[in-house]
Amino acid sequence: MNWHVRKFHFIAPFYQLFFKFQTWNYSMIIEQNLHKTGILRDDTLLDIGSGTGAFAKSWERSGLKVLATDAAPGMIKQCRKNGLDCIELDLNQGLPFSENEFQVVSAAYLAHGLPLDQREFLYKESARVAEKAVIFHDFSKKTNPVISAIENMEGSHYREFIGSAPGEMKPFFTTVEVIGVNKWHNWYVCHP
Ligand SMILES: C[S@@+](CC[C@H](N)C(=O)[O-])C[C@H]1O[C@@H](n2cnc3c(N)ncnc32)[C@H](O)[C@@H]1O
Fold first, then answer.
1. Which of 96, 121, 158, 171 has the most CB atoms in a 10 Å sphere around its CB?
2. In terms of Cα–Cα distance, which of 51, 24, 147 is closest to 106?
C-alpha cells in the first residue's frame, strides 16, 4: 500500500461522515447529466477508487449494475457497510478484467490525487475495460482557494491536473467531452 492509499485507509471512518451528503449530491448530478452521456440505466459499471462508495451507490440508485473497488482496506470496509459489492483492487497493478468487460467505468476524485504516470495508467486501463464510456468526476479549471489549500495539505496533484486535463486524457481515448456539472467540477466523458 503506498502512502496515498494508506492515508485513505486511516481517514475512512471520518470520510464516512460525508457519505449521505455525497450520495445526495452525486445522485443529483447523475440525474441531471445522464442523458448527455449515452449511458443507459441498465448498463454495467466499474467504479475505481470508490472510497466509502458514494459515487458507486448513486449510479446503483440510477439503475446501473455496479462493482465498487478501492485499494484501501478501511474504505472497502465502509463501502461494504454501505451495501455495495466492493473488491480490493490497486489500480497500479492493472485492472484484472478483460477488454470491454464493463459498459461504463467511473472514478470520482481519483485522478487529481495521482501523479501523471499513474493518471496515464488509469486512462489506459479504463479505456481498455470500458466498452462505451469512462466518466471522471473531478475538478474543473476554475481555481478555488479553499480547495487549493486542502489539496496542498493533502499533497495531491490538483494544480497539475486542472492545468492539463482534459488534454492529458486525449491520447488514450477516441473522444473526450467536458461537461461542467457545477462551477468547480467537471465530468470528463471519455469514449474508448
Ligand atoms: C478522494 S477519494 C474519493 C473516493 C470516492 N470516489 C468519492 O468520491 O468519495 C480517492 C479514493 O481513491 C482510492 N485510491 C487511491 N489510489 C488508488 C489506487 N492506486 N488504486 C485504487 N484505489 C485508489 C483511495 O483509497 C480513496 O478511497
1. 158
2. 51
- Whether 72 is in the pocket of ligand 1, judged by its Cβ within 6 Å, is yes
For residue 68, is it within any domain? yes
- Lateral strand order in the sheet of 102-108: 86-88, 65-70, 44-47, 102-108, 130-139, 185-191, 175-180
CATH of the domain at 158: 3.40.50.150
Residue 74 beta carbon below 6 angstroms from any ligand 1 atom: no
Ligand 1 centroid, distance to 183 Cα (angstroms):
22
Q: What is the pLDDT of residues 145-183, one digit of tens each?
A: 888 888 888 888 999 999 999 999 999 999 999 999 999
Q: What's the total number of domains in the chain? A: 1
How confident is the model at residue 144, as a pLDDT? 86
Return the closest-CA partner of residue 67 out of 92, 81, 49: 49
